Amino acid sequence: MPFAVCVTFTLVSKHIDAFLPLMHTNAQTSLTQEKGCHRFDVLTDPVRPAEVFLYELYDDAAAFQTHLDSAHFRSFDQAVAGMIAAKDIKTYEKVTS
Question: How far apart are the C-alpha atoms of 96 and 81, rounded to whole Å?
């Protein structure tokens, strides 16, 4: 069953420009190296420059856990830890089209 993850980051203002390239690399690596990752959108809005929204779609919760356990995610997570003021994560187990 598809598993969706929505994450909203609020960034520390001085780190916005450094965060986005790291986020885009994490998204692309997830899509190309994780068989269970089917979508990884990174959304921003110039009106709210410190906010970054992610929409991720995985085969199932286990595929998302594989993402969290991956070396590239752990490296990304460590690199951006000091750039994030707040993070809200929501998961959805029932995904319909």
Answer: 33
Cβ–Cβ under 8 Å, residues 18 and 89: no
Mean pLDDT of the region 33-46:
97
- Nearest residue to 29 (alpha-carbon basis) of 89, 71, 59, 72: 72
The CATH number of the structural domain formed by 3-92 is 3.30.70.100
| Domain residue spans of the chain | 3-92
Contact 77, 83 (CB under 8 A): no
Residue 34 DSSP SS3 = coil
Give how far Cα 84 sits from Cα of 40, 60, 66, Å: 19, 27, 23
Q: How does the average pLDDT of the chain come out, rounded?
A: 96
